[in-house]
Design brief:
The chain has about 450 residues and is an alpha+beta fold. It folds into 2 domains: about 5-170 and about 230-320, BirA Bifunctional Protein, domain 2; about 330-430, Rossmann fold. Helix 5 packs parallel to helix 9 (about 230-245). It has helices at about 15-35, 50-55, 60-65, 85-95, 140-155, 170-185, 195-200, 215-220, 230-245, 290-295, 310-320, 340-355, 365-375, 385-390, 415-430, 440-445, and strands spanning about 40, 45-50, 70, 75-80, 105-115, 125-135, 160-165, 250-255, 265-275, 280-285, 300-310, 330-335, 360, 380-385, 395-400, 405-410. The strands form 3 sheets. It has an 8-stranded mixed β-sheet, sandwiched between helices. Strand 15 (about 395-400) and strand 16 (about 405-410) form a beta hairpin. The longest helix has 20 residues, at about 15-35. It binds adenosine-5'-triphosphate (ATP) and magnesium ion. The site of adenosine-5'-triphosphate (ATP) has 19 residues, from strand 6, strand 10, strand 11 and helix 11. Adenosine-5'-triphosphate binds near residues 83, 260 and 261.
């Protein structure tokens, strides 16, 4: 390149050779979310900074260190969303979705922005698939969203993922726990990092989530929240586990999970892989019963999770899970001059509106070069429409795989080729469904 303009550190381009994989994964996930009763919500990339400091919590790593915050030209403090829950909850409250039948179940695919140290599985612009279920305190809802995440991993045949589960209680029982944590960390005060010293007074639980190696070593022996939760929270947690057992979903209780965002209450969970390096958490979520009130709404017990799309793709890659490749070009129409190019444009347009992938020359190449190109793009059939073919009204259709050639009438090419293509597509469909995963059935044949 003559300029030195490059993508910003911590961001990545998704090139055509990979974008179809993400598109397929997103389509599958959207379909599964739909089966669980979720509808898509889209919210803005940026919000007022207050939304995140009030919801994510101003003692969290995200708010203290990672947000992309700037003042806009009107002097407002704006932040690029570091996560999706806060925006979805804001939207739920602002548009009175609580007047709709409850619970309201929404999902989204969003880009998120966090100023972190870029490394494998950790970017500054990354993507999440998230779900939020607003308006239920039942433990069966906790198990249901876990089942949804689990279904996604199962569908792709992902192995060796660990579901780790914990309960971090409600504000009532947490008060006791904060006291216990405070006195534990107070005795280790000299070793804590500066950020954690501040957290000690304001929110000692956040120290458990500190990424500094010294603090996380100290945190290992800290009192465990699960030993402090009240009877209600305990019985909620037991019921979540019973539902998971009933659905045959395996989990382990990990009493050290607290999650990095302040709004969580009761159930928290993570799906963790050991195959993608240090950033192994591919999905994290839990309940956030207090968030709606925190943002000025009425009490709305809710829950959700977010799945890191880049980490999910890393796992698919690590486990060599192939995704069906997109349809290749059905027909390449080669042309020789302006007249044939005019006819080819019309035929191509008509066949495309029949749902076929048709390519014709828009570069001005020689017929030989056009055929070379048709080969490169893997066209299933080719035909040459030259002066002679236009005159005689007949052209040759070549099946590029078998080499078989048949005559086709130029006037009838749209109808005739449509039926030939349908037969070819139907006979190749079975190749796209592979072990444990019938993408075509799930997507109703979209791909
Ligand atoms: P981590 O433990 O990696 O810091 P987190 O607890 O900050 O994650 P959440 O805020 O719960 O993560 O986000 C949900 C999911 O989004 C994570 O489990 C992860 O898969 C993904 N994720 C979070 N931060 C990043 C990032 N910087 N780059 C890529 N994916 C990320
Ligand atoms: Mg983080």
């Amino acid at each position: 390149m003559s300029t030195n303009i490059q993508a910003v550190k911590g961001t990545q381009d998704i090139l055509p050779k990979d974008s179809y994989k993400i598109r397929t994964v997103e389509q599958v996930i959207a379909e599964i979310a739909h089966n669980y009763g979720y509808c898509e919500i889209r919210t803005p990339v940026f919000e007022y900074t207050d939304l995140f400091s009030r919801s994510v919590g101003d003692t969290t790593d995200v708010v203290q260190k990672e947000m992309y915050t700037f003042e806009d030209k009107g002097g407002r403090s704006i932040t690029l969303r570091p996560e999706g829950t806060a925006g979805a909850m804001r939207s739920f409250l602002e548009h009175g979705l609580f007047n709709e039948p409850m619970p309201q179940k929404v999902y989204y695919f969003t880009s998120c922005y966090r100023y972190e140290k870029p490394q494998a599985g950790r970017l500054r612009e990354f993507h999440q698939f998230g779900v939020e279920c607003f308006g239920t305190q039942s433990a069966s809802a906790d198990a249901e969203i876990i089942a949804l995440a689990n279904e996604i991993f199962d569908f792709f045949g992902i192995q060796n993922l660990r579901l780790e589960l914990n309960s971090i209680g409600c504000p009532d029982c947490r008060a006791e726990y904060h006291k216990a944590l405070h006195s534990y960390f107070e005795s280790k005060k000299d070793a804590l990092c500066n950020t954690c010293l501040g957290r000690l007074e304001r929110n000692p639980m956040r120290i458990l989530d500190c990424k500094s190696s010294v603090c996380s070593e100290i945190a290992k022996d800290a009192p465990k929240v699960i030993d402090y939760i009240c009877d209600d929270c305990k019985s909620h947690f037991e019921t979540v586990k019973k539902h998971l057992d009933s659905m045959n979903i395996n989990y382990i209780v990990n009493p050290t999970i607290v999650r990095g965002l302040d709004y969580y209450t009761r159930t928290v969970f993570e799906f963790v892989s050991d195959q993608i390096g240090a950033q192994g958490t591919v999905c994290g979520g839990g309940r956030y019963d207090g968030l709606a009130q925190e943002l000025g709404g009425a009490s709305t017990p809710s829950l959700g999770f977010a799945m890191g799309m880049e980490r999910l793709m890393l796992i698919l890659q690590a486990q060599s899970i192939e995704l069906p490749t997109p349809n290749k070009c059905d027909l390449y129409i080669a042309t020789t001059d302006e007249q044939s190019s005019l006819v080819a444009s019309r035929i191509a347009k008509d066949l495309r509106s029949e749902g076929l992938f048709v390519t014709t020359d828009i570069v001005g190449r020689s017929v030989k070069a056009q055929m070379k190109y048709a080969n490169k793009i893997g066209a299933a059939f080719t035909t040459v429409l030259g002066e002679d073919e236009i005159k005689s009204g007949k052209s040759k259709l070549k099946n590029m795989e078998s080499g078989e050639v048949q005559e086709i009438e130029v006037d009838k090419i749209v109808d005739d080729f449509s039926s030939i293509a349908i037969q070819t597509i139907v006979s190749s469909l079975s190749d796209d469904s592979f072990e444990g995963m019938d993408i075509n059935a799930l997507l109703g044949g979209i791909i």
